[in-house]
Design goal:
The protein is an alpha/beta fold and 291 residues long. It contains five helices and five strands; from the N terminus they run αβαβαβαββα. α1 runs antiparallel to α5.
Length: 291
């Protein structure tokens, strides 16, 4: 049974931990506000970019650009997984990485080759522990990640697709829903998935034809790499905001748990102290009776 001195040391230790978790919650809340502002500012641009590319590509044949045409037989698939560099954020990384692992295990029955690249130390450690070696690993880039880096990443992915290094490319990340909620999302970013419009059924769904200068193919050459980079950049912003939200919620729960633990330990300490006082009084009474 724990002694009174041991319990008091535990109370002090838990109080120190509580101060740390409370401070981390406040830091994450401040970072979340900034990340959420960046995310909300980028979402309308990404949405309009996707609408524009879908509109142009819907009126063009799949042969108009190599990034639009799907391969007849999909044999090689690659994933880009966006995890975090730091932990203490609840199930933010675990939910994502376990889902990607299940998808890759299921994909081994469909595809001849499955490769993956990882962003973040937690994703790297997760797969290395399972004896899976990522093709590429990038860490400590979230704080400085910008659209120029997204363009470079998109260029590398596009080159890999055009050289038939893979037939499909998927992006896995945590989509930011709210400060306490994230959704694990896996989307195919290559080849581009075009949502065609039925122009024959309803005038409301009519997709107007435009005159393109210099040409539709030329515009697709300029837009598709930017659209791909926009999708990647948007996913990074979603992941960053989701990480701060998950860490804020986790630290808030840890602070509340510390408060409850301190209450229980204090109650246990009071009971032991009361028992010790009662024992001393009984010893004094017994000694007086003996005299």
């Amino acid at each position: 049974m724990a002694t009174l001195k041991t319990i008091r040391k535990r109370i002090v230790s838990v109080k120190n931990t509580q101060k740390i978790t409370k401070a981390m919650k406040m830091v994450s809340a401040a970072k979340l506000r900034r990340a959420q502002q960046r995310l909300m500012g980028a979402r309308p641009y990404a949405q309009k970019m996707n609408e524009l590319v879908s509109h142009i590509a819907a009126l063009a044949p799949s042969s108009a650009h190599p990034l639009l045409g799907r391969r007849e037989e999909v044999k090689k698939v690659e994933f880009l997984v966006l995890s975090s560099d730091r932990g203490l954020c609840g199930g933010f990384n675990g939910n994502l990485l376990r889902k990607v692992e299940r998808q890759m295990v299921a994909g081994k029955q469909k595809y001849e080759q499955i490769q993956f690249s990882v962003v973040g130390k937690k994703g790297r450690d997760f797969f290395v522990a399972r004896h899976l070696t990522p093709e590429q690993t990038q860490t400590s880039i979230y704080d400085t990640f910008n659209f120029a880096q997204a363009l470079n990443m998109a260029a590398q992915i596009t080159e890999g697709y055009l050289t038939e290094k893979f037939d499909e490319y998927y992006l896995a990340y945590n989509k930011f829903i709210s400060a306490i909620s994230q959704e694990v999302v896996t989307i195919r970013i290559l080849p581009f998935e075009v949502h065609t419009t039925d122009t024959q059924t309803s005038s409301e769904n009519y997709t107007p034809e435009y005159i393109y200068e210099p040409s539709r193919a030329g515009i697709l050459d300029a837009l598709l790499p930017k659209a791909l980079a926009t999708t990647i950049y948007q996913a990074f912003l979603e992941s960053i905001a989701g990480e701060h939200g998950a860490r804020m919620a986790a630290m808030d729960a840890a602070t509340n748990n510390s408060r409850e633990m301190i209450r229980r330990l204090t109650l246990q300490s009071n009971r032991l102290r009361q028992a010790a006082i009662t024992k001393e009084l009984m010893d004094i009474v017994n000694g007086a009776e003996a005299l």
